[in-house]
Design brief:
The chain has about 350 residues and is an alpha/beta fold. It folds into 2 domains: about 120 residues, Rossmann fold, CATH 3.40.50; about 200 residues, Dihydrodipicolinate Reductase, domain 2 (2-Layer Sandwich). About 35% of the residues lie in helices and about 25% in strands. The chain has 9 helices and 17 strands. The strands form 3 sheets. The chain has a 9-stranded mixed β-sheet. The protein is globular, with a radius of gyration of 20 Å.
């Protein structure tokens, strides 16, 4: 397969970023876009020279002249659209999360297996040079044994898309998912979770209208990875400006490894040099990596046979961690996590 034909579901603001990246890929050709607001789909088609426009995903799937669907719709619509596409025999890349319950996630993975197609979910953080550098430093025990880690990512909350604040949305599913993917990728699967979660701001002004907030906007998650290895994720829609230095910290017995920038837009890795007793920056060239490159990356994998670093099993594990965090916050109890995944970067 020299070029993968791609269809986009959901033509909101995120689609511009994906399409802007896909247009530069030698392995992808976007042939169709779809949105329930057909005028938005037509606008994207005109901007990027895309030949086919649809207002309904089912209609686009019945047309079917593509290999991979990229699902950029609202979180609450991810599962039904993903399921339709997999049942139609299409590879699927979905924005996070790819489902909102474990049962939905299991159904998607099993459907992909049955149909002989691939399922992936954002975020793509494990594909960045910075992540790979940190994973290598951990494997080399560059800072000794790492037992402690923390990460944080937040902002003031979206001013568009009421669904961010409705049931099935929230800051953990939208933002915390990045850090949970990163930390489980580096430290291994979580075995149990304890969390605090709340709604600090009960009403939001979204697209000129007051919206009652039903989902979390302030969350802290503590994960236990086994062997007395613990990590903490802080996330929320209640964050003002803050320094983007060291947004992920891995603390070892002989030093620390710090991510400079965010894991979705890294700038480099800082590591403690024990011999010189000073910090040094490594991996400051991110080779153009950004969060919106999942489509072009996976098209390359499909076209060339390259093994993707992203897996459905890792995405499912992250979903289970987030759902366990919700359960922990509701009950005040520590919640076990059952799923595991194999990390391709460790093979």
């Amino acid at each position: 397969m020299s070029r993968v034909r791609v269809a986009i579901a959901g033509c909101g603001s995120v689609s511009w970023h994906y399409l802007n990246d896909l247009k530069t890929s030698p392995h992808a050709q976007v042939v169709a876009v779809c949105d329930v607001r057909e005028e938005r789909a037509r606008e994207r088609a005109e901007q990027f020279g895309i030949p086919y426009v649809f207002a309904e995903v089912g209609e686009m799937l019945r047309w079917g002249e593509f290999e991979m669907l990229i699902n950029l719709t609202s979180m609450q619509q991810h599962y039904p659209i993903n399921l339709q596409a997999l049942q139609a025999g299409k590879h699927v890349l979905c924005e996070k999360p790819f489902a909102t319950t474990l049962e939905e996630g299991q159904t998607l993975i099993e459907t992909a297996r049955q149909r002989g197609v691939h399922l992936w979910a954002a975020p793509t953080v494990v594909t960045s040079p910075a992540f790979q550098c940190m994973a290598q430093l951990l494997a080399q025990k560059a800072v000794g044994e790492v037992y402690v880690a923390r990460a944080w990512y937040g902002h003031g909350g979206p001013s568009w898309g009421p669904w961010f604040y409705q049931k099935g949305g929230g800051c953990l599913f939208d933002l915390g998912v990045y850090n949970i993917t990163t930390l489980t990728g580096l430290l291994g699967p979580a075995r149990s979770v304890v969390a605090l979660m709340g709604t600090a701001i009960p009403e939001r002004l979204v697209e000129g209208q007051q919206v009652r907030v039903e989902a979390d906007d302030n969350t802290m998650v503590l994960m236990e990875h086994g062997g007395s290895v613990f990590s903490c994720v802080m996330t929320g829609f209640v964050y003002g400006p803050y320094h983007e230095e060291r947004t992920v910290e891995l603390v070892g017995t002989k030093g620390s490894i710090n991510l400079l920038g965010w894991d979705w837009h890294p700038k480099g890795v800082e590591v403690w040099d024990a011999e010189r007793e000073t910090w040094k920056v490594v991996c400051d060239d991110q080779q153009g990596y950004n969060w919106n490159q999942g489509g072009s990356y996976l098209a390359r994998c499909l076209a060339t046979g390259e093994k993707p670093l992203m897996t459905a099993e890792h995405a499912f594990h992250v979903l289970e961690v987030m759902l366990a965090a919700q359960q922990s916050a509701e009950t005040g109890q520590r919640v076990p996590v059952q799923s595991r995944f194999t990390a391709p970067w460790r093979e």
